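Form 12-C: Joint structure prediction
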Amino acid sequence: NAGVTQTPKFRVLKTGQSMTLLCAQDMNHEYMYWYRQDPGMGLRLIHYSVGEGTTAKGEVPDGYNVSRLKKQNFLLGLESAAPSQTSVYFCASSYDLYTSSGYTFGSGTRLTVV
Amino acid sequence: DQQVKQNSPSLSVQEGRISILNCDYTNSMFDYFLWYKKYPAEGPTFLISISSIKDKNEDGRFTVFLNKSAKHLSLHIVPSQPGDSAVYFCAASDGGTYKYIFGTGTRLKVLA
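Section 2 - Result
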């Protein structure tokens, strides 16, 4: 019963490098989300998906791209990392929007860009 | 432009007393609200939800109150326990946009 799994858990990147964060869920959820958490800023939505093959922009999409080729996976890409992208990234999924149990979150990826 | 605001960054409460965490929102279209708890180095975990058709929802020691006219919700924890020490986030959605907007969080410390 894995729930939502994020890989990697930690990563240090140099400015300009690229990387992909992987989110996998085994609950057959339709909706998947990528958030970032920064001190004093709470959780801000980067991109989200309401089903396989769909993606949409959230509050802070610039500098990120996403793909949802398979229902269970939601990938977040940084094409050219910047120090401003240093953050903790959380993936979440839900069966539907009004589920009484809300989202299920992964344990996060701590990314540092130097 | 923060649509969901938690104006108290931190709160300290004695064990056994009531903890009240507040959340204000600006978008009158929000119709579903959630509270999450987050421990360090872990993802947020769901606590309790409330629909805009209700003004109160209870689950054990946790009660959420919604005042739509004031665009305000609050989470009451009674009695507070040391294990409740965490960061609490409120979140709101208007349904049609398929996503939740989170507040900035309130760090609760329950003192033994």
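Section 3 - Comments
Chain A is about 0% helix and 50% strand. The mean pLDDT of chain A is 92.
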